[in-house]
Amino acid sequence: MGKYAESSEWxxxxxxxxxxxxxxxxxAIAYTEEYSEAMSYLRxxxxxxxxxxxxxxxxxxxxxxxxxxxxxxxxxxxxLFTLQKDLLEELEWxxxxxxxxxxxxxxxxxxxxxxxxxxxxxxPELRFLARMFxxxxxxxxxxxxxxxxxxxxxxxDTELPYVETLLQQDVRNNSAWNxxxxxxxxxxxxxxxxxxxxGGADEEVQREVLQSEIEYAKEKITLAPQNQSPxxxxxxxxxxxxxxxxxxxxxxxxxxDVDREDGVRSSHALDLLADIYAQEQEKxxxxxxxxxxxxxYDPVRQNYWNYxxxxxxxxxxxx
Length: 319
Known about the structure:
The chain is mostly helical. Helices cover 60% and strands 0% of the residues. It has 15 helices and no strands. It has helices at 33-47, 53-65, 70-82, 87-100, 105-115, 125-135, 140-152, 156-169, 174-185, 207-223, 228-241, 249-253, 267-279, 283-297, 302-311. α2 (53-65) runs antiparallel to α3 (70-82). The N and C termini lie far apart (69 Å).
């Protein structure tokens, strides 16, 4: 007998076994006996729409065995809200599971569901997220949750210094660059109507902010010219400003001279210059930048650079 069958607390429940399609299923999943029993009791209590402390404990047992079981998380949340449990205690319980299962989406969806029922940001929350990032600085689920947190609690003004700290620690942290974009620009968009990826010039964004972000990106490029993230960020801000890429021409030429094959410190500068020259109808200079990329500075993507040359009506080159 299993844990629940032996417990008098569950005497009134008739467990419901999983139906795999008859006595000889084609591809039955080899669950452990412990998991199969727990799920059989879960089906029974969910069928009765029971909200109770024992049901809550049951969800905890199943999550321990299978933290990716989405339905169990939803049922757990229903129990917490119906029973009016202490949601701060639930967050504390979640911390341990989150640290054990770093890349589990369901854990973070549940955390967001719980947090949406809490009126003010709990003091330990940001400290815990920092702990998660110390385990994996590019954890997509944690970053997605943090963006929701910033919007939900309007943390726009306090979040930027944190992002700057992360970029000081690792200027190549592309997740931090992405988050900076969100913090600086997403406050000006309606999440229900607009995409934060909108590349058009936003009238709501102050010109001083745009110029400050351009200078910030340039500063970080200077620290690590071959780091693609700030180059992409610079492109994005220039489009937001509505000024076109040409505003960065002189800056980019400081990292790549298409007239000197050895005068290139950044392949990303070459890429940007290829676009700028093409926009300025300097087809040959644009083609030369793409040739340098294809032949020397990024030959792995030779086919891509040659495709770009073909758009200019230029012949392919070989590495």
